[in-house]
Specification:
It is built from three helices and eleven strands; from the N terminus they run E-E-H-E-E-E-E-E-E-E-E-H-H-E. It is of the alpha+beta class and 150 residues long.
């Protein structure tokens, strides 16, 4: 039996911003709202920021570039893409992105199935601790969620 409402309306100010790895990610729709089908986020990446190349073993990921200069890493090559571009990365494929501009990069990120929000919440809690980030611990948290750095 499906207990989800037929429509979910999320206002633009909804969600609590999480910060990890220098990025800000705001969950907009979570697995709790979508019956585990997918998650959706608003992301803000500072100039020069972005994750190292990595792969997700549990979820597919796709991005919509909303504002800024984005470069995506795929097949061992960085490619700049314009605003409005959608980039899809299936699970298991090494990928990354970075802000190639001088202003914040804003994107909408989707993952399916849901679960990425749990990783990022744990990573944000770890990054909020005093002192520099404990990278071995962050790598362990990532692995516990099926995310591996290349």
């Amino acid at each position: 039996m499906n207990t989800l409402p037929s429509t979910i309306i999320v206002p633009p100010t909804a969600g609590q911003a999480l910060r990890a790895f220098g990025d800000e990610i705001t969950p907009v729709l979570t697995g709790a709202q979508t019956n585990g089908q997918y998650s959706m986020f608003r992301t803000v990446t500072p100039p020069g920021g972005g994750p190292p190349p990595h792969r997700h073993m549990n979820e597919d990921e796709w991005f919509l570039v909303v504002e800024g200069r984005a470069e995506f890493f795929r097949d061992g090559v960085w490619t700049e893409v314009p605003v409005g571009t959608v980039v899809y990365t299936p699970r298991g494929v090494v990928h990354s992105f970075r802000n190639a501009g001088t202003t914040p990069l804003r994107m909408v990120l989707h993952t399916a199935p849901s679960g990425f929000e749990n990783f990022f919440a744990r990573a944000a809690a770890e990054c909020a601790k005093p002192g520099p980030p404990d990278m071995p611990r962050l790598i362990q948290i990532a692995a516990e969620h099926g995310i591996y750095f290349a």
